Amino acid sequence: MLVELNPSKVCFLIVKIREFDIQAEENEGGGSNATDDGFAAVYNEEADGSVQKEVAQFIRAMDIDEKRELVALSLVGRGEFTADEWTEAMAAAASRPELRSVKAFLENPEISDELEDGLDQLGLSCDDFDEDRL
Asked: Which residue of 15, 53, 68, 100 is most buried, as measured by CB atoms within 10 A?
């Protein structure tokens, strides 16, 4: 079903978006004591952190057909369509250009799960991708 979009690109995005999600979380302090353990904040407090920029550049570099498939995949992953309704998901992705924007991806807190679920419904997985990068 993915014709233009290589699943490894989707997996890369999933990993990077999850990195961004971790950086974007607020540091609530919990169990760390800066005096005792020299805790250094690992969260990026800048709105345009390096991971966010990397994700944005990666999405911007995709052609229109890849972006449509990426949106269709997220629509399948969120349950708006099934894998059998791929043609309809692609039509919806084409008719909703606002979903192809970088901003839409970065502002959707569920996008990494939606993409992963979409891949799963298409019989694809990021298991090998994760193993290659660990």
From this structure: 68
> What one-character-per-residue DSSP string does the chain give?
--SSS-HHHHHHHHHHHHHHHHHHS----TT--HHHH-----S--STT-HHHHHHHHHHHHS-HHHHHHHHHHHHHHTTSS-GGGHHHHHHHHHH-GGGGSHHHHHH-TTHHHHHHHHHHHTT--SHHHHHHH-
Q: Are 93 and 71 in contact (CB under 8 A)?
A: yes
Phi, psi of 4 (to 5 degrees): -90, -30
pLDDT band at 118 (very low <50, low <70, confident <90, very high): very high
Mean pLDDT for 19-24 is 66
Domains of the chain: which residue ranges? 7-24+44-133
